[in-house]
Amino acid sequence: MTTATENTATGAPGEGPSLRTASMHTRTLPGWFPPVLLVACAALVSGALFALGSFHPASAAVLTALLYLIAVVVVSAVVENGRKATDRLVTGVVYCCFVLAMVPLVSLLSTVVINGIRRFDLYFLSVSMNGVIPSMDAGGVYHAIVGTLVITGIATAISVPVGLLTAIYVVEYGRGRLKAAITFFVDVMTGIPSIVAGLFVVALWIMIFGPGQTNGLAGAISLSVLMIPVVVRSSEEMLRLVPADLREASYALGVPKWLTIVKVVLPTAVAGLTTGIMLALARVIGETAPLILTAGTSSTRINANPAEGQMMSLPVFIYQQVRAMGSSGDAGVFSEERAWAAALTLILVVMLLFLAARLVSRFFSPKLGR
């Protein structure tokens, strides 16, 4: 009887009085209000700056963001409540930080694309600099692409097994002082400057083969020194995210530990492991200093043999062309165009590698049934 009376009083059969009271006393700004307010703030700030004769995109964006945050908080506090106003303030700050972080990335990509697209064509990608002098409007980056793929491929082949096995030991087997020592040295190696890795390999190569022996294999080893600690740390974190229940369920079925790692732990973490490996690869694919010391800078021919003489790479090619930009006449102009086009090529190579990694993680990660 009481329930029926309350339902009748609220005017909605089956709806409790508390829900009706909350809906009556809670007001919410419409969904279109924040974007409309942002546009109005941008128009107001731009008009004021134009009137003062001091318009600049950066200053206009900053003032628009500040005005929008103040306006949306005041309006939300008046129309809604203090908690909602705080939520809108934090949401606006997060969006502003995101846009601020995207500005240098968009600026970098747009600059490289605008300046590099002028020479970026099939000819540039399919020929080398063999026989090309700086004043010639010719030559391409094919030999540097081959060198980059060979050097980073060997570095990846060295670093991934070593780094992944090290992470498996630290997470699954490591105990006591040995585990602490491995973790400590991995952390130390993570902060090693790239030039130091190059000098280490140069000293090692001089001890084994004598002075002046620079080749792609030495460059790959110098990159692997930088790549291994990144693979270890990222793989270690991904393996720790695998739920312990999966391991315990496998052990309960009588599966040995090594087979549990191979069949359960690694397939579960394959997406994160692939991402970590790609981050490590992106960390080293643009390194210049160690390759200048170990792989050389004077190769202009196509060389796919890492043990046979010097080998050019995209970062070193860009470095060479930038150095030649100070030349007088057409040589400086052509060098600048080749440098920007090579930078665009390097970005595209990294993007293709990340796309391949996403496909690997998509097709090889375990499928979760419902």
Automatic annotation (TrEMBL):
<protein>
    <recommendedName>
        <fullName>Phosphate transport system permease protein PstA</fullName>
    </recommendedName>
</protein>
<feature type="transmembrane region" description="Helical">
    <location>
        <begin position="92"/>
        <end position="117"/>
    </location>
</feature>
<comment type="function">
    <text>Part of the binding-protein-dependent transport system for phosphate; probably responsible for the translocation of the substrate across the membrane.</text>
</comment>
<dbReference type="InterPro" id="IPR000515">
    <property type="entry name" value="MetI-like"/>
</dbReference>
<feature type="transmembrane region" description="Helical">
    <location>
        <begin position="58"/>
        <end position="80"/>
    </location>
</feature>
<feature type="transmembrane region" description="Helical">
    <location>
        <begin position="182"/>
        <end position="208"/>
    </location>
</feature>
<feature type="region of interest" description="Disordered">
    <location>
        <begin position="1"/>
        <end position="20"/>
    </location>
</feature>
<feature type="transmembrane region" description="Helical">
    <location>
        <begin position="339"/>
        <end position="360"/>
    </location>
</feature>
<dbReference type="Pfam" id="PF00528">
    <property type="entry name" value="BPD_transp_1"/>
</dbReference>
<feature type="compositionally biased region" description="Polar residues">
    <location>
        <begin position="1"/>
        <end position="10"/>
    </location>
</feature>
<keyword id="KW-0472">Membrane</keyword>
<keyword id="KW-1133">Transmembrane helix</keyword>
<keyword id="KW-0813">Transport</keyword>
<comment type="similarity">
    <text>Belongs to the binding-protein-dependent transport system permease family. CysTW subfamily.</text>
</comment>
<dbReference type="GO" id="GO:0005886">
    <property type="term" value="C:plasma membrane"/>
</dbReference>
<dbReference type="GO" id="GO:0035435">
    <property type="term" value="P:phosphate ion transmembrane transport"/>
</dbReference>
<feature type="domain" description="ABC transmembrane type-1">
    <location>
        <begin position="145"/>
        <end position="357"/>
    </location>
</feature>
<dbReference type="InterPro" id="IPR051408">
    <property type="entry name" value="Phosphate_transprt_permease"/>
</dbReference>
<dbReference type="GO" id="GO:0005315">
    <property type="term" value="F:phosphate transmembrane transporter activity"/>
</dbReference>
<feature type="transmembrane region" description="Helical">
    <location>
        <begin position="264"/>
        <end position="285"/>
    </location>
</feature>
<feature type="transmembrane region" description="Helical">
    <location>
        <begin position="144"/>
        <end position="170"/>
    </location>
</feature>
<dbReference type="InterPro" id="IPR035906">
    <property type="entry name" value="MetI-like_sf"/>
</dbReference>
<keyword id="KW-1003">Cell membrane</keyword>
<keyword id="KW-0592">Phosphate transport</keyword>
<dbReference type="InterPro" id="IPR005672">
    <property type="entry name" value="Phosphate_PstA"/>
</dbReference>
<feature type="transmembrane region" description="Helical">
    <location>
        <begin position="214"/>
        <end position="232"/>
    </location>
</feature>
<keyword id="KW-0812">Transmembrane</keyword>
<feature type="transmembrane region" description="Helical">
    <location>
        <begin position="32"/>
        <end position="52"/>
    </location>
</feature>
